[in-house]
Amino acid sequence: MASHVVGYPRMGPKRELKFALESFWDGKSSAEDLKKVSADLRSSIWKQMSDAGIKYIPSNTFSYYDQVLDTTAMLGAVPSRYNWTGGEIEFATYFSMARGNASVPAMEMTKWFDTNYHFIVPELGPDVNFSYASHKAVNEYKEAKAQGVDTVPVLVGPVSYLLLSKPAKGVDKSFPLLSLLDKILPIYKEVIAELKAAGASWIQLDEPTLVLDLESHKLEAFTKAYADLESSLSGLNVLVETYFADVPAEAFKTLTALKGVTAFGFDLVRGTQTLELIKSSFPSGKYLFAGVVDGRNIWANDLAASLALLQTLEGVVGKDKLVASTSCSLLHTAVDLINETKLDDEIKSWLAFAAQKVVEVNALAKALSGAKDEAFFSANAAAQASRKSSPRVTNEAVQKASAALQGSDHRRATNVSARLDAQQKKLNLPILPTTTIGSFPQTVELRRVRREYKAKKISEEEYVKAITEEIKKVVDLQEELDIDVLVHGEPERNDMVEYFGEQLSGFAFTANGWVQSYGSRCVKPPIIYGDVSRPKPMTVFWSSKAQEMTKRPMKGMLTGPVTILNWSFVRNDQPRFETCYQIALAIKDEVEDLEKAGITVIQIDEAALREGLPLRKAEHAFYLNWAVHSFRITNVGIQDTTQIHTHMCYSNFNDIIHSIIDMDADVITIENSRSDEKLLSVFREGVKYGAGIGPGVYDIHSPRIPSTEEIADRVNKMLAVLDTNILWVNPDCGLKTRKYTEVKPALQNMVSAAKTIRTQLASAK
After folding, report:
1. Which of 218, 411, 696, 735 is positioned for an S-S bond with 672, CB 3.0–4.6 A?
2. Known catalytic residues?
3. What is the chain's mean pLDDT, rounded?
């Protein structure tokens, strides 16, 4: 039996690619320097998998930004605003699409299915002149082959690419993107022909949209596309890979009947119902790539259970047609447990990062072939038993408090309109109040202070002094800019989830468990291994200190329970909603303590609420019910005069707008600018929103500084569909990734735009 890995983390065990990218973007290193770091990383990944015994090793899963943008480059689908003139796409054009530049904004960025990874959304229309403009897939295959590693080149499948795209600006929103299949397939044929000529014997086409609820015409597009590609694929073994959920019955039927396809890959961790379809109707003579090792979490595989499942599948498809695989790309997990020095031995024994998962996959393949490593399986069984019986996992008081939540929907006693009136009397804000989302730039000096404090190189007194000075700088800047509701800038926090997890029980933390979110942005998700509670206040000290520096309202800044859950590696031994309710109770304690300390505006970020939405519509209602309920638990007991904000970003919110309203926050700030303001369309279509709302007026993920006129134009578009008395003016997201030289003029222009429109509105009365 053979083994396979869908994809592998790109950043490197010590985030080598992140630092190389940022050095290049800052002009401190050359394109050649960046390419050298990238080549070294690819080489080490291929060698690692080869040494581990993996037979089907992927190539072209490395990316400088994301695999969908790589496909856009391959197809030459560059929007005209980037002034690309043809030829092989270079870094300048590639990164302008991803990040924008001084002249034009970036393309839209959104979440990759229900993960915390992001991709750049292709902008397509009838006038796009597709051309073969990036030979990356072929070049990386040749690169690996020159090192003695025969890989499986991976491409985003043509139908999924189009289904993940959007009509370009100026193109009718009803434009049928699948009508472009005939234009992009010739380029896929060119790529396939070059891969065959280079010696490739296998190719992997990722078609993850097959796990979605697809209408019949979309399923027919798969049939059409692969029938068209059949002659080009002749002579190759072709794997079509799916992941993240079950493949619905009709999609399974379509998938397994595709022309020219040799093998099918399924996520059997999140897609357990697909098993029944495999058992009843998997096509004879085809390969089954069985995704039994979880690519989205860090728990060690239950090898005995996975081996039993593989043995069952062996009886269905035959030993020579069964391949042990990961459930999806390992991009979504941390790189290597060997780099961990902070974790104690007990918790460490429960875990497996990407490097360990590669070993698990091969161990399962060998066991099924009759070469079982008894010692490895025995150690795994002992770790599984240890985790189930460990007293540190269970807290009876927490479980009792969580169980007591049943039977109440936890709503504030007064409706939002009355609360807003009470809050306005207390806060006395102008119309179109301005604010920011929370974080301010994280300077090199600030990171040094936090690093030295953690390493015990400076005293607590020195640390408090340095952070207080940073907060004062941020407060003074906001007052100078005349922002209405202030933030303290979060200088004490490296990461919004990690910061809270470090202060909650039931969490563990890694030293190097970094995971790519987008571009060079990496996060270090906490590990929720046990029941969650809050031993003591987490933010009251810094919020109170910041409020003492100003007479303006100072927001208390918290991360909401659903976002903490979705941005952590979550225990898999109880339902996710039970863990979320535990976190909600901990945040509720913090909200009440902030209110007692005199904080009158409290922001509870739920940036990842939409991200956790299941991929299948039939499962939406259950998730949204407990997710929204969890948010309401956090602030159910506070006074009407305390204003609750929440923030959401970089997802499509239109389909859950009614659940957002049901959260019953007083004010929501929400990403809007980078997605062509499509959020506003729900209000144009008649959705009534009575709470405060701040659709973002500029994109903070781009270094570009928007003009006052551009921001004013956005605000006026908002006023066309939203009442003046509920609209807030704010950026899309927090400012931690930007520089002060970008932040100050952008906020200056934002405040100026708000004041200009206030004057216009006053004179129009």
Report:
1. 696
2. 701
3. 95
